[in-house]
Amino acid sequence: MQNNxxxxxxxxxxxxxxxxxxxxxFPDAQLAIGPVIDNGFYYDFLLPDSxxxxxxxxxxxxxxxxxxxxxxxxxxxxxxxxxxKKYEEQNFKVELIDDLPKDEKISFYSSGDFTDLCAxxxxxxxxxxxxxxxxxxxxAGAYWRGDENRQMLTxxxxxxxxxxxxxxxxxxxxxxxxxxxxxxxxxxxxLFSFSDLVGSGLPLWSPKGTVIRNELQKALLExxxxxxxxxxxxxxxxxxxxxxxxxxxEKFSNELIKVISHYGEFVMKPVNCPHHTQIYDSRPRSYRxxxxxxxxxxxxxxxxxxxxxxxxxxxxxxxxxxxxxFCLPDQIKQEAKNLASIIxxxxxxxxxxxxxxxxxxxxxxxxxxxxxxxxxxWEKSEKMLAExxxxxxxxxxxxxxxxxxxxxxxxxxxxxxxxREWQLATIQLDFAMPKRFELTYTDKDGKNKTxxxxxxxxxxxxxxxxxxxxxxxxGAFPVWLAPVQIKIxxxxxxxxxxxxxxxxxxxxxxxxxxxxxxxETVGNKIRKxxxxxxxxxxxxxxxxxxxxxxxxxxxxxxxxxxxxxxxxITKIKTNIKNRSLELL
Length: 584
Description:
The protein contains 18 helices and 28 strands. β24, α15 (496-508) and β25 (513-516) form a beta-alpha-beta unit. α1 crosses α2 and α7 (207-225) crosses α11. The chain is globular and about 90 Å long. The protein starts with a helix and ends in a 7-residue tail after the last helix.
């Protein structure tokens, strides 16, 4: 048995054992669903009483007791009538059975005195599960079937592995992830906030958080313009018809936010590409004009369900790094190669390039209705991206069902410092949308032809990307991204004026600096600077005022760096210009 199949069976079986343990504590509990998820499992219950995380050790103890009894998991298939009778007191199970196709065989798995509606697979005996290799981790509220108009259920999460060593390693990562949680660090470092008056999923960026966003945007612009990309600007609303033509109105039908004016109805843009097609279409184009390359960092909006909004990773206002190239068919590969170069340079500046793999995301052949465009165009574009992967030695893995609605794509999957994987940069081929909007260019023979559209995102959503970066760096950003690059601390009142002059000198060199001239002790000031993850901290007293040298506390280093003021300015400016990851 392959390891991934074995662990899947273990996790699935544990979800049933969790349900057994919960029923022993709450015999009247209503059972919902208990699937396998990444690294573990969960089960949803409607309970007659509350269950807190403090109760989980007792539930876990009961699960271990069940495991030790060598209970066998046995599959059976019964008729719909028998199934409905069997579950007549379990409302959620009845609903699930009613939703199954009329002619479908209904399977169950029994383990001891417990039976659950389930297609499997499971371990044969409970003793195949290592009782030291799983842990219940948390409880949460979850609407039945994700519908906020249905019952709120209690969800119990667990993680499970084949052995204790793997579990311990994963729990250590979880503990570190808690320390790095972007919601926690974002508040501590004063990067962003949320307001009930503004609304959930609508982040407010402080001056410090805005610095990071602006630096990322500046880096993207500098790198992209080397490849002939030009910035554009579009409005935040449009007529619904724009998205009906593009196909997005149907895809995002439940997420569109409407804006009613005195003179008509508009939609907050859920995506940006349809607007960019209209900039292209604003004047006649010749083959000599192509390629035309647009880029923009702009907000788009989706009416996410309140229960699914989470920190910066799932929001309603999404600032997207978006770009679209309109080109001739024979220009596709070179344009895609340029985008791959932009991705390499941008992620190299963040220390992430090389810690990644690439997905060739193609259609799900079983669901042709989920996509737009001609089959021949899809076949051609999938082949081109596969060839591009070979030429660039990307070693892209073909993944079915992950394509965009209009075309296949190359998705870059990056690993952060905790080993977690994130889909970030993407290069997408689109033959469909230009045809839908009847975009044309005049070829060398004077005939109208349809351009190809290449969608690209380098960092994707700024909100999600910042959440990832905050946790990746644990708030200790490279100096070029750091909101405050130097903190100047005064020892006493007599040193404040000198500190102010020194700060003015740094600011004149476009170095971000902050003063701490408070009445607190120097030790407290240094500790605060350390907690704020400041790259360089300067303490100014009599000795420092009488010298041209600086004694610099470098983040993460014990020894002070003694350096001439002018040399320090030169080195830090070079560090910032080169977007170096290393401190002095």
